[in-house]
């Protein structure tokens, strides 16, 4: 294992110290329990937005804390759920009287711990709602999941809900919006290589020199199929077809198209894949009204990509376009 | 070789088609000769800003075309200089009557071809200046270079000069600013792994399972030293010390600190490295007034990082803060 780290046990803490040093205007890092919170405090009466999950998917979620997106994030160790006490502390920190929405990716540990944190916070008098994101069409159940996994849709949803919270949405309305976004987003990923969790020191799984995994999870969980590597255009079609058919997306739909690098895939290849994804969307009669291209939800240094598509009405597009200023996503500010 | 590509010969063209599809509001791609130009045209009387070089370093340079940064970029094949006819066409496309500045990374092919393009454009009546960027302190001469290589400083310089051109700087003033920035910026990089040029199909160089290359070039050119991998903090010190000593940066200097991923290194490790780089800067009495963290000048999927530091007076900081809207760098717009 070759990594730019010191002690494998200190990777998450030291990376958080780096984030704190780089972005003091945007976020503050608390340790023990560990959470990242916006530096300027949550405005009175605004619903607080919290997400979290295992580390190793950067910039998600810590990199989406700031203005116009998440108010706080709870990072676990690499590919390990954060604990309820982290979530409880973060929830308390961002409650500004209007309650807190938990955006939870559907992994068993995350769901269980966010449920406990919700109970703890509610017994402390904070109104908390949770929406579980499960946008991955690859598999119905998975290694760490009952039901579908939460993946790239989470990135879009955190942006959109962040804008809505800024706009003054109530907790009820924000919960409804988050659910509606989740109902209208689908994703699927693939990998050319594994990744190595620092404390494990060995690749999470093995892939042959000519193999790829279609439908991979963001922790390297098995997908639909292991097969020989194909030209990129065919790979993109293998991801786009199940996405389009699952919702189903329909002729005339406006969509946000998000082509994501799993981390180790260079941007030149992500754009090459975007080209084909956009072409296929058009062939299905979809109108790509917004897009996102790059590494936003990663699996350490895994080579591969995922595609996410969200059906987007004018409200969603307006929320998408609203200013955002976080380390990992920024525009209009 | 496992890559998300179709035919190795089509990688650059297809990635450019993807960029064109993703960012029609920002840029337009011309083929044969190939260049990327801002979509909204250069305002009358503004100096045009052109850069370019081999592909494989994305988002640099194509991803820096838009508003507030480059007006055009000429991509070569992967790790291969673009040709003079590309540069000439791009220069003509962005001349709005005030001349064109070429920002050239110091590689023999780039320098030679930009010189030819400058002559061609000048014989066509366009006032052209060139500034050669040579910020890499690792080696004095290199495989593809007479003199020092141009690396991470280029990213900062393109942003700063883009803002200055927007502000109405004349060609003389812009040339002087670009030279001043280059005089005040230093960089050094390292690699844990090689990368593979698609048309070559084999890694550019070999590194042992426990080895790293200190002072690597962005095409995998040899650096100062091949040695056993060390903890990240020591590696960062191996990069920071020569940077600080070379200028030399002095107690009390304000600096922009840029910690860059070579592509395959995940963001969690880049922030971990930033933590140490910022700490060392402080120990040297430097004040980090701005920073940039992430993959901005890459070497395909190479794992590694580079550190760049620029001495920044108030003018530089103001230009750095000015709005920019490109696919690869965006704020305030």
From TrEMBL, chains A, B:
Catalysed reactions, as listed in the record: dihydroxyacetone + phosphoenolpyruvate = dihydroxyacetone phosphate + pyruvate
Cellular component terms per the entry's GO annotation: cytosol
Annotated ranges, domain DhaK: 7-329
One Pfam family named in its UniProt record: Dak1
Gene3D superfamilies noted in UniProt: Dihydroxyacetone kinase, domain 1, Dihydroxyacetone kinase, domain 2
Key words of the record: Glycerol metabolism, Kinase, Transferase
Residue ranges the record marks as coiled coil: none
InterPro entries for this protein: DhaK_1 (IPR012736), DhaK_dom (IPR004006), Dihydroxyacetone_Kinase (IPR050861)
Listed EC numbers: 2.7.1.121
One GO term (biological process): glycerol catabolic process
Record flagged with keyword Amino-acid biosynthesis: no
Pathway: Polyol metabolism; glycerol degradation
Highest rank taxon of the organism: Bacteria
Gene Ontology MF term list: glycerone kinase activity; phosphoenolpyruvate-glycerone phosphotransferase activity
UniProt-listed NCBIfam families: dhaK1
Name by which UniProt lists this protein: phosphoenolpyruvate--glycerone phosphotransferase
């Amino acid at each position: 294992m070759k990594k730019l780290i010191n002690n494998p046990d200190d990777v998450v803490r030291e990376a958080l110290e780096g984030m704190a040093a780089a972005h003091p205007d945007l976020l503050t890092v608390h340790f023990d329990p560990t959470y990242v919170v916006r530096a300027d405090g949550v405005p009175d009466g605004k619903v607080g937005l919290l997400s979290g999950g295992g580390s190793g998917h950067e910039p998600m979620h810590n990199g989406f804390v700031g203005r116009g997106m998440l108010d706080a994030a709870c990072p676990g160790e690499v590919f390990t759920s954060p604990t309820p006490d982290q979530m409880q502390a973060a929830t308390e920190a961002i409650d500004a009287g209007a309650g807190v929405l938990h955006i939870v990716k559907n992994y068993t540990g995350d769901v269980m711990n966010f449920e406990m944190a919700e109970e703890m916070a509610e017994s402390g008098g904070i109104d908390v709602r949770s929406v579980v994101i499960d946008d991955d069409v690859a598999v119905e159940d998975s290694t760490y999941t009952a039901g579908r996994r939460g993946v790239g849709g989470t990135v879009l949803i955190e942006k959109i809900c962040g804008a809505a919270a800024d706009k003054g949405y109530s907790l009820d309305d924000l919960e409804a919006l988050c659910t509606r976004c989740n109902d209208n987003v689908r994703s699927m990923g693939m990998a050319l290589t594994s990744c190595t969790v620092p404390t494990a020191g060995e690749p999470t799984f093995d892939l042959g020199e000519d193999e790829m995994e279609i439908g991979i999870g963001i922790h390297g969980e098995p997908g639909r199929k292991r097969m020989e590597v194909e030209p990129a255009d065919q790979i993109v079609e293998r991801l786009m077809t199940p996405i389009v058919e699952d919702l189903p997306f329909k002729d005339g739909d406006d969509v946000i198209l998000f082509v994501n690098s799993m981390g180790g895939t260079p941007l030149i290849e992500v754009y090459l894949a975007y080209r084909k994804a956009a072409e296929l969307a058009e062939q299905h009669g979809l109108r790509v009204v917004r897009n996102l291209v790059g590494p936003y939800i990663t699996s350490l240094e895994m080579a591969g990509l995922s595609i996410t598509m969200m059906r987007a009405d004018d409200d969603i597009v307006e929320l998408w376009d609203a200013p955002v200023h976080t380390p990992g996503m920024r525009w209009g500010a």
